[in-house]
Amino acid sequence: MRNKDQTPAAISRDVDNFLAKVAAAPVPVKGKEKGRLIFAMDATASREPTWDRACHLQGEMFKATDSLGGLTVQLCYYRGFNEFHSSRWCEHTRQLLTEMSGTTCLGGHTQIRKVLAHLETENSLQKVQAAVFVGDAVEENADDLCQRAGKLGVLGVPLFMFHEGNNASAASVFRQMAHLSGGAYAPFNPASATQLRDLLAAVAIFVAGGHRALQDLGKDLTPEVSRLLQQLKE
Description:
CATH architecture: 3-Layer(aba) Sandwich
Number of domains: 1
Mean pLDDT: 79
Helix content: 40-55%
């Protein structure tokens, strides 16, 4: 567990050690099929102050998991007036970074419902092992979102809801969606780069190696990732 009094250098070493564990995690993917992870982002105006930093961290995380050899990632996001975009499936870090770096934030309402519908469609075409969502607000009908999250749970597509900021109503909806889908909820501080980086790496482990791979990290788990793992056990 990480000590709150650690120096920045020590924290950096912890992150490096954690990501090294990610790279060494077992990959139970059979045959030539790779684990598929959908990465969904809120790209509305409220996230603009932290967008570039978040994209950089996500790119760094996927670089660290290159050696897993069992992941393909699709980026999707919403922004502006009814704009929803999904990328090609990316098997290499450079492809994903190109998709991310070409995206900017644009004011508009949340469109989480479209994200969930997209997940269902992609899963019907080929199995999706998990989805990550990073956002800070909910401006849609909570019951409808939870119903759709529950359906994804039945289909075996857990949602990892990573909440930026401290919006209480969004936190409540994100928690319920994660629970109903069989996934996990985690808040993170936009000013803490390592929190989001650790959480994203943990999901990569889960997609590539399942619960066992995540548990095998043992004492190297950060507090945030330990809480995420506990939710998956419930």
